[in-house]
Each structure stands twice: as C-alpha cells, then as structure tokens.
Amino acid sequence: MKKIKIFVMVLVVASIFLGLVACKNDKKDTGTKDPKVLVMGTNAAFPPFEYMEGGQVVGLDAEMMALIAKELGMELKIVDMDFDSLPTALANGQIDIIAAGLTVRPDREETMDFTDTYYTAAQTVIVLKDSGYEGIVDLSDKLIGVQTGTTGSFCAEEFVNDLSQIKTFQNGMLAVEALKNGQVDAVVIDNNPAKEYAEINSNLDLIEGEFADEMYAMAVAKGNKVLLDRVNEAFAKIRGNGEFDKIIDKYVK
Ligand code: ARG
User: Which of 84, 151, 157, 169 should be mutated for ligand 1, with most atoms under 8 A from CB?
Assistant: First the structure.
C-alpha cells in the first residue's frame, strides 16, 4: 500500500514537472509572449522607415516586418513609442522586436541581440539654406538638434565644444521644426529621413559625408535566440525571393 502511495506521488510530481517544462517549451518555440502575435516596437516619426499615414504606422520597416511575420505564420502588431523607450520595452517583454532604423552599436549589443543587418545609412547634417555652414568644422560652437538616444546625438557629441550645445528632441521632425524656427543651427540625423525632411521643406540643405557608415538591424531581447534565428531565417527568405528589394525600391529614393 505504502509503495503504491509513493508511486502515485512520484507520478504526480513528475507530471507537474513535465507540465512546467512543456509550458516553457511552448513559449520557447516562438520566442514571443503570444505564439500567434509578433509585437514590433518602433518610433514612427522616421520616414521612410516608419511614419504615420491615416492613423497607421507605415514605411519600410513596417512592410519588412509584415512580410517576416507572414513567413512566421504570425500576426504583426506595431507599438509606437519614444525611440529611447524601445530598449526597456524590449527587455521587459512589452515588445518582441525593435524595427526602427536601429543602428548596430557595441554598447547596444550589451543589452539586446541584433539580427542580420538590412540597410546601410550614415548621419547627415541638416542646415538652413544660406546659413553658410559647409561642414561640422563650422558647427563646433553652434546649437545642434538631435533625437534623444540616437546615433545622430552621439555624432554631435563628438564635434561640439560643449555638450550643453546639444538640444535633444523626442523625434527628428521636432528637431527639424526647431531648426526652421531658429532654435538650433543644425540637426544631425540619418540620411534617409534627412532627405525626406529636405524634400518637404525647400529651405533646408544637407551636408553629407561627414560620418562613417552605420548598419541597421532589428533587435530582440538579449538571449532570445529562438526568435533571433526565426527572424533571420524569415528575413533570408524575403531577401532571397526579391520581396525585400521591392520594399527598398518602393521607399528609398
Ligand atoms: N539610426 C539611428 C539610431 O539607431 C536613429 C534611429 C531612429 N529611429 C526612429 N525610428 N526614430 O540611433
């Protein structure tokens, strides 16, 4: 009798344990909280990669992620937030992946895992036409507008005499508004958004070729190898079958 009791107890404990392992594995299978939904975090004021149109987040990143989600048999959900909130949202599981024209950087690699890269960019300086500024040498004592937490802001930190000359904005559009209003003398931002801003504002000039190339990649939470591998595989597919190139052609001028 005693033996049977012990046997039953062992069975109960074993099945609870197996159950727990199974649940854990379920989650691990997709690397996402909801196995059917891929939650992408972005900051949608960064054309042509992400911007608002008709109340929706659209752009290169949104379309690329929609295709990746489709490959994974998942529904894509996009969450728009401040750019500098993205790493925390990723770390605490509020989002599964960042797709935000995000540049790969060693310091970022400490807190997140980057996918394969998908785009080469470089920082550009936006100035007002007729300002006479020709390069960063002319801007070392000027006020520089940047988006908080971006590589543009790190580049600006390199060439100003004093960090107090750097004015941070919650997005690139606001920095450009400040330039037009005379609150800053230049804006440092990625080349493609810079081109888009200059296209809709005829009084802006771009200074290119001052900074090194950067690579964009998506990012998943540190250690989420399951999702990283799945996304890389899906991305390889849409790159291989030409679908990704079509998106590039559609959005990059
Ligand atoms: N490439 C820059 C960086 O990683 C700027 C990205 C800004 N992206 C955005 N969606 N607002 O720092």
Answer: 151
Determine if the peptide bond prior to 106 is cis (ω within 30°): no
Atom of ligand 1 nearest to the CA of 100: 10
* Cα–Cα distance measured from residue 250 to residue 66, given in angstroms and rounded to the nearest whole number: 15
CATH T-level assignment (fold) for domain 123-207: D-Maltodextrin-Binding Protein; domain 2 (3.40.190)
Give me the residue spans of the domains in the chain.
Answer: 37-121+214-251, 123-207
Ranges of the chain whose pLDDT falls below 70: 1-4, 6-28
| 93 within 8 A of 227, measured Cβ to Cβ | no
Cα 215 to the center of its chain, rounded Å: 11
Pocket lined around ligand 1, Cβ cut-off 6 Å? 42-43, 46, 49-50, 83, 100-103, 150-151, 190
Which atom of ligand 1 sits closest to the CA of residue 172? Answer: 11
pLDDT in tens, 10-58: 655 566 555 555 555 444 489 999 999 999 999 999 999 999 999 999 9
- Helix, strand or coil, per DSSP, at residue 214: strand
Q: Do domains 37-121+214-251 and 123-207 have the same CATH topology?
A: yes
**CA 172–ligand 1 middle distance (angstroms):** 9
Nearest atom (ligand 1) to Cα of 50: 10
Classified by CATH at the fold level, domain 37-121+214-251 comes out as: D-Maltodextrin-Binding Protein; domain 2 (3.40.190)
